C-alpha cells in the first residue's frame, strides 16, 4: 500500500482538546478496504471510523457530512443543502435531493428595487438570502440505505464540536478574512470572532453547535425542524429581514429522484438530475466532445481544450434557458441529452475559430465571483459507492449564524434567477425556468457523479466550485477515460472553465501558456484564476484496486477503513 502523508502536528497549551493532530493524507492505494475523501482530514477520519464500526458507504457519507459541519464551516453544514448519488453493490442506483427551498413568503420580485434593478446584496448576504435548509432532512433520508443508527453517525461530529479541534492555516486565514462580515451580519457575538487573529493550531470549540447536534441525536428530524432549534432559527430571521417561518421548516421535504444515467465510451455515468444542472451539462458536454475523438489528443493541448470549451459553451447556454426545479417547470432532460439534439447543437463547431457566444444565446454582461462548496467521495469494502456535494452557497453562506444554535445559514436564494438575465454570484444567468417561487428549489451546478464499468463503480468523483463544478467533473472523466491518466494527475492538473457567458475562458494560473496563446490566436479570450475547484476522486480498477486522491489545492484528505 502506497501512502503520501503530510503531517501537520498542531498543539495548543491553553486548552485540553482531543483533536490536536491533523494528518492530511493526499493519496492512498488499497484493496478490500473502504475509503473516504473529503475537504478536511478530521471529517474523512469520522467517515472511516464509521466504516470500521461496520457501517457502509452511506453510513460513512452521513457521518462525514455532520463532521464537515463542525470542522469545515465555510461549506460543510446543517444550515444548507446538498445532493447524494449512490450506487449499491446490487446495481441499485439512486439520488437524494436535499436542496434548499424558497420560503412560502418568497416572491418573484423580492430582490428587485422600486427602479426595477436587482439588488444582489440582499440575495447574497444577510437573512433574506436564506433558503429553507435541507441537509439534516437529507441525512435522515439516507438512513434507509445505512446499517447503523443516526445516534452513532452523529456522535463523531458532537465530539469534534464539544471537545474542540486545532484549526489549519487555511481555516485561520479564512476566519480572519471573514471577521468583518461576521460582525456585520450577526447581532450577537459568535464563536468565530475573537479579539486577536486566528492562527494555525488554535482550538475551536463549538458548544452551541454540539447542543444542536445532540438535539438531533435525541429527537431526530424534529430536533432540527421543530422545537428549540427551529424556534432559534425563526428568531434569527426576525432580527433582520428574513422570511423563513416555523411552518416552512416543518414542511420541508426531501425529494428522492431517479439518478440521471447515460453512456460514455462503454461506461455508464450516473449523476444528479434536475434541479442540479450538473448531470445534464455533463451528458451534453461529454457527448459533444465525443464526436471529435478526444482520445487522439493530449490533456490540456490546444485542440482538446478547444473541443471541450465549445461543448461547455453550448451546454451552459442551454442551462440558462431550460433548467430549473422539475417540480415547477417542464423537464426537458431527455430532449436536451438526446443524440439528435446534441448533434444539431454541435453543427457549427469549427477548429478554425472560437464560436461567438452570441451564436448560442443572447449576450448579457457578466461579473465573475468566487465560490465555496464541498464534496465527499466514498466507497466501502463491499463495493457500495456514494458521492455527495453539499453547500451553503457562498463562503460561510449568508454569514448569519443562528444565535444559540451555533450554525451558519445558507445564502442559496441567490441561485435563483433573481431577475431573468441578471447573473448570480457565480456569473450564471438564468431565465424564467429558474425564477423565484414559494417552495421551489433553486437550480444548482453540484455534480456528484459515479462512473460504472461493467456495472461496477469505476470512478467516484465531484468537486466544489459553483458553476465550475460540471466542467471540472467533465475534465476528470475525460482525463481518465480518454487520456488514460491516473487519479493523481487528473485531480491535480491545472483546470480550465467556460460557461457561455462571460465570453472568457478561465485558466488556472499554472495552465500551459503555449495552449493559452494558441487559443487566443483562434479568438478565445483568456483569463487567469488562482484556483478552480477541489476534486475528490476514487478510481477502482478491474482487479478491485482502489486509488483515492484528495485535491492538493486545500486541506483535503483521504482516510482508510
UniProtKB/TrEMBL annotation:
Residues 1-17 form the signal peptide. The active site is at 373 (nucleophile). One of its GO terms (biological process) is glutathione catabolic process. Its EC number is 2.3.2.2, 3.4.19.13. Keywords: Acyltransferase, Glutathione biosynthesis, Hydrolase, Signal, Transferase, Zymogen. It catalyses: glutathione + H2O = L-cysteinylglycine + L-glutamate; an N-terminal (5-L-glutamyl)-[peptide] + an alpha-amino acid = 5-L-glutamyl amino acid + an N-terminal L-alpha-aminoacyl-[peptide]; an S-substituted glutathione + H2O = an S-substituted L-cysteinylglycine + L-glutamate. Pathway: Sulfur metabolism; glutathione metabolism. The keyword Transferase applies. Cleaved by autocatalysis into a large and a small subunit. One of its GO terms (molecular function) is glutathione hydrolase activity. L-glutamate binds at residues 99, 391-393, 415, 444-445, 466. This enzyme consists of two polypeptide chains, which are synthesized in precursor form from a single polypeptide. PANTHER family: GLUTATHIONE HYDROLASE (PTHR43199), GLUTATHIONE HYDROLASE PROENZYME (PTHR43199:SF1). Belongs to the gamma-glutamyltransferase family. This is Glutathione hydrolase proenzyme. It comes from Chryseobacterium wanjuense.
